[in-house]
Amino acid sequence: MAYAQPHPRLSVLSSSSQSSAEHLSPSTSSTRFSLPSAPSVHSTLVTGKPGQRPNIYDRNLNRTRVAEVSASAFAFLFSEVVQYTQKRVSGINDLERRLNTLGYRIGTRVLELTAWRAESASKTPKREIRFLPALMSIHTQVWKAVFGKSADAIEKSVENADEYMIIDNDPPIERYISVPRDMSQLSCSSFTAGIVEAVLDGLGFPARVTAHNTPNSQHPSRTTILIKLEKSVLDREELLNQKQ
């Protein structure tokens, strides 16, 4: 099986040195992920009684510290998800498709959460209607909300106007995944691609998002999230450019 690798001729649109509005991003370190935590087995539907822990549904969504999950716990859980899924697929394509589907379900919830926090933090919240600002918010805010850090770069294909790339030199979800040699083309970041695709769909920028291994000498785990926009998005962008 061979991947259609991202085009070698790329123009860099942004890097991790670029910053965006930080009001959506929880304050996290690179060793922790901000993910919804599971309710305790001791939680009950009734709250307020002495000795009982508050129900997860009563927690403030804007308090991110209570929603952190340790990197080791997340890595263990994700590894189990990959192994469970691997036993129930017929090949690499099927495995990546299922990981993408799982990521899509997470992405819809991430978008809801970040939108809620944006409205809570600002009296005049703004919904992006242009693609590049929306892509920048994914590069910074969404990545920080899920992985505790920004992505490393955004690139645009010089040859294809409908292709953009998000570069992550060290994907957190791949740090503790050991891929067999006969499955070297597998990219577990298909899970991340699903998250990106869900967020883009929710923002009104439908696209097909895939993950590709693009290692180099400095970053052996380097991954490219390839975004191929639908024609309707390009037509709308062109129309908006004409109105400016």
TrEMBL record:
Q: Which UniProt keywords apply?
A: Endoplasmic reticulum, ER-Golgi transport, Golgi apparatus, Transport
From the record, give the transmembrane residue ranges: none
According to the UniProt record, one GO cellular component term is: TRAPPIII protein complex
- Its main subcellular localisation, reduced to a broad class, is endoplasmic reticulum
InterPro entries xref list: NO_sig/Golgi_transp_ligand-bd (IPR024096), TRAPP-I_su5 (IPR016696), TRAPP_component (IPR007194)
- In residue numbers, the region (Disordered) covers 1-57
Database matches in Gene3D superfamilies:
Trafficking protein particle complex subunit 3
Q: Does the keyword section mention Chaperone?
A: no
CDD domains, per the entry: TRAPPC5_Trs31
Q: Which SUPFAM superfamilies does the record associate with it?
A: Ligand-binding domain in the NO signalling and Golgi transport
The biological processes this protein is annotated with in GO are: endoplasmic reticulum to Golgi vesicle-mediated transport
* Subcellular location field: Endoplasmic reticulum; Golgi apparatus, cis-Golgi network
Residue ranges, compositional bias (Low complexity): 10-27
Q: Name one Pfam family in it.
A: TRAPP
Q: Which family does it belong to?
A: Belongs to the TRAPP small subunits family. BET3 subfamily.
Q: Which PANTHER family match?
A: 41-2 PROTEIN ANTIGEN-RELATED (PTHR20902), TRAFFICKING PROTEIN PARTICLE COMPLEX SUBUNIT 5 (PTHR20902:SF0)
Task: Describe the protein's quaternary organization and the partners it interacts with.
Answer: Part of the multisubunit TRAPP (transport protein particle) complex.
How is this protein named in the record?
Trafficking protein particle complex subunit
Source organism (scientific name) = Crucibulum laeve
Taxonomic lineage is: Eukaryota, Fungi, Dikarya, Basidiomycota, Agaricomycotina
